[in-house]
Structure formats: structure tokens, C-alpha cells
Amino acid sequence: MTPAEEQPLTGPVRVVWSPDMLAYDFGQGHPMTSARLDLTIRLAQDLGLFDAPDVVMADAGVATDDLLARVHDRAYIAAVHRAATDGVVDLEHGLGTSDDPIFPDMHEASARIVQGTVDSMLAVWEGRAAHAVNVTGGLHHAMPAAASGFCVYNDAAVGIRALLEAGAQRVAYVDVDAHHGDGVQAVFWDEPRVLTVSVHETGHALFPGTGHPRETGGDDAPGTAVNLALPSGTGDAGWLRAIDAVVPAVVRAFAPDVLVTQHGCDTHVLDPLTHLRMSIDGQRAAAQLLHRLAHEAAGGRWVALGGGGYAVVDVVPRSWTHLIGVATHQPVDPATAVPETWRDLVQERFGRQGPDRMTDGRDARFSPWTSGYDPSDDVDRAVRATRSAAFPLLGLDPDLD
Ligand SMILES: [Zn+2]
Ligand SMILES: [Zn+2]
Predict the structure, then answer these.
(1) Mutual orientation of helices 378-390 and 236-254 as an angle, nearest 10°?
(2) Are 245 and 228 in contact (CB under 8 A)?
(3) CA atoms 354, 357, 363, 368: torsion sign
(4) Ligand 2: centre distance to CA 12 (Å)
(5) Residue 355, Cβ neighbours under 10 Å: how many?
(6) Order of strands across the sheet that contains 194-201
(7) pLDDT given for residue 5 in this prediction
(8) 175, 186 in Cβ contact below 8 A?
(9) Ligand nearest to the CA of 208
(10) Torsion angle, alpha carbons of 221, 387, 284, 274, to 10
(11) Which of 4, 152, 279, 321 is the most exposed place for a label (fewest CB within 10 A)?
């Protein structure tokens, strides 16, 4: 147990969920299937994580067009409505592509995810919840005027905008999905009150191709974008060393009122769309690190979102169940057996065996940056590039902090 995990709850923890959220599904054969969410919630449920009296399940409803318009263009919102009701393809707005095919409930399902994230943000901001989790959220590629990368509306961006309008002075967003958090970065590029930090596989090898260390924020907000672009093939020890060498320092320096994190689990070695080599244990360690950071640097105000993750049976349910465990102060021991009820469900639905333990058997150990820079190591060079580009703009010394 870490000190932060021993802290008593300062209030209930909110978990946004409604079976209606399963409507966000791009259809047969598309990687973004809602089975990933269904299996996650069922696994967390079967492990008893929702039974504690301080865990509140919230069905937040559907965001209004006016709320979506805090980030998205009205013409784009109208195009999503037309796609949903009449099946109108609109390539200019990214609707009807192979990444973002049209589906009947497209508008409502996407707006429901946004409302879940806005509800999480406001519950934490208003002190109604210590932490909040929306594993259906983290749709970080959606742009103000276009769908992109399986994302229709940018729930994280709309939620952060709602926080600012509710009075938050500074919000930090940390995104550990395998892909660059380009949509959130774009929305707040010139916004000095929002720090966006993205840790991802290099854009030279992976969609969307952005997120290079020299992207550090617009002229009105220098230093408010931090990008850590890691080499393909990076595993637990390198990924955790890199996160630890950059994220706590920049978040502390920014001193946010709220920490928002995106936990795309497509960094896993089994993910079919990316080339990183993380384990469930490494992803769990990152969730713990970010939880501690929220307590230390943001008064405990923490909103955790899902994101990508396309190993539907073997990775997503376990990774996000650990996230829910960390956020609800009931961390799941990695040695825990996966409940038989859940394994039966997998067998019945997928005709195959699911994982039997909540671990991949790794120890998630890494050597901290203070152990010394190794110029022959690709991960260390990537860390160095980010620290050199971003740290001075935040008043940090790239060689010391
Ligand atoms: Zn991703
Ligand atoms: Zn906590």
C-alpha cells in the first residue's frame, strides 16, 4: 500500500455507467466495440468493486447541443445529427469514414459519453465526489469540427471547458493512451489555464502522427502542451521510467485545481493496433502513480477516463477494473483470480477462454530518472527531448527536476 492509498475517503467516488452507454458501437468488425465496456463493468461488478457504500454509480444522461457547442462547431453537431437520423455521410466532418462509420444512435450515444464526463468533472469540482471514473470516456481524437480516430465528440475537452466555466483556474490533463491526445491538445492549444500532457507511441509510427516534443502550446499559452513520444516496442520499465521522469514534475509545476487522466490501454503488448509492449501490471502502476499525483498536486480532485484499447477480452476489462479499483480506494491485488462467473461469460460469448488472473505476472518495476541518463537508450533520449523542450517553459530545469 502506498501512502495515498491508505488515505481515508474524503467523499464518495463516482463511477459513471448506464447500459445505454453500450450504444456507442461502430458495428461488426470495427475495433471500437462496446463489448469492451460491457466486459469491464461486469468484471468490476463480479469482483465486488461497486458494493462499497462510498461507491456511487451514476447515469448522467445525454449532453445537450448547447453543452457540446462549448467545444464543437454547430455545423459539425448538425452533421452528426444528420448522420444519426438519416445516415448522411459527411466526409468533410469525418463522418462515414472507415475509422468513423455512421451508426444509428451516433449522436445520442456520443453525447451520453460527454455528459458522463461533464457529470464526473462537476461532481469532483463541487465536492460531491472525491474522485470520478468514466471508462466510456477519453475520446481524445475528436476535433471541434470533425470526428476522428473512433471519436465523435471530445468528452474530455467538453468536461474541461465545463470545469473552467464552473470556476476552476487551472486543469491538468494527462493522457497515457498509445495514441497522441491530439483533439484535447488542439482545443486547449492557446488556453493558459489548461495543461495537456500526452505520453504515446511516436507519431512517426502511429496515428495520428502528431505529438512531437516540440509541440509545447500556442503563443498565448507557451508550455501548456507536453508531449512524450516513445519508441515503438517500449515496455513497462521504459514507459514507467519515462512517465515518472516527466509527468509528476510538470503537473506539480502547473499546480492544477483538478487532475484529469485518460487511461487508454492500447499500450498493451496484445493490442492489435499499436506497437508498445506494456502489461496489465504496468498499466495498473501508472493508474496508481496518477492517483498519488492527484492527491499530492490537485487536492485529491481526480477524474479518470477510459480511451483506446482493442484487446477486448484479454486487456481492456482487467486494465480498467484495476483503474476502478485504484480510484475507489479498493486496489485489486494483481494475484486475484478472475471470477468464474466472468470467465463463463467470456466462454459463452466469445467461445474462448478469458484470462484467469488479474495480473500478467510482471512486477512493474523501473529505475527512476535520477539513476542517470543513458544516451544509448531510445527511451532515455525521448525523455530528454521532452524535458528539454517543455521543462524550461514551466520554470523547471531539464537537468535537475
Ligand atoms: Zn489509442
Ligand atoms: Zn484517492
Answers:
(1) 10
(2) no
(3) positive
(4) 10
(5) 18
(6) 55-58, 13-16, 131-134, 302-305, 258-262, 171-175, 194-201, 225-230
(7) 46
(8) no
(9) 1
(10) 90
(11) 4
Nearest ligand to the CA atom of 54: 2
Say yes or no: domain 8-394 is CATH 1.50.10.20: no
Number of helices (H), then strands (E), in the chain: 12, 8
Catalytic residues: 141
The three cell numbers locating residue 288: 496508481
Q: What is the pLDDT of residue 11?
A: 83
Q: How far is CA 170 from CA 161, 162, 268, 303, in A?
A: 11, 12, 31, 14
Separation CA 326–CA 345 (nearest Å):
24
Strand runs labelled E in 17-168: 55-58, 131-134
Neighbours of 345 (CB within 10 A): 17
- What single letter denotes the amino acid at residue 93? H
* pLDDT score for 10: 63
Q: Give the N- to C-terminal CA distance of the chain in Å, as an integer.
A: 26
* Ligand 1 centroid, distance to 307 Cα (angstroms): 6
Asked, as a colleague might, if the bond just before 208 is cis with ω within 30 of 0, I would say yes
CA of 208 to the centre of ligand 2 (A): 33
Give 152-178 pLDDT, tens digit per residue: 999 999 999 999 999 999 999 999 999
The segments of the chain whose pLDDT lies below 50 read 1-6, 8-9
C-alpha–C-alpha distance, residues 199 and 230, integer Å: 7
- C-alpha 201 – ligand 1 centre gap (Å): 9
Contact in structure between 19 and 135 (CB atoms under 8 Å): no
What contacts 370, CB < 8 A, 6 or more positions away? none
Contacts of 174 (CB under 8 A, 6+ apart): 197, 198, 199, 247, 251, 259, 260, 261, 262, 290, 293
The crossing angle, in degrees rounded to 10, of helices 280-297 and 316-327 is 30
Counting ligands in written order, the one closest to the CA of 303 is 2
Report the sign of the C-alpha dihedral through residues 177, 178, 183, 187, in that order: positive
Alpha helices in 87-154, H assignment, sequence order: 106-125
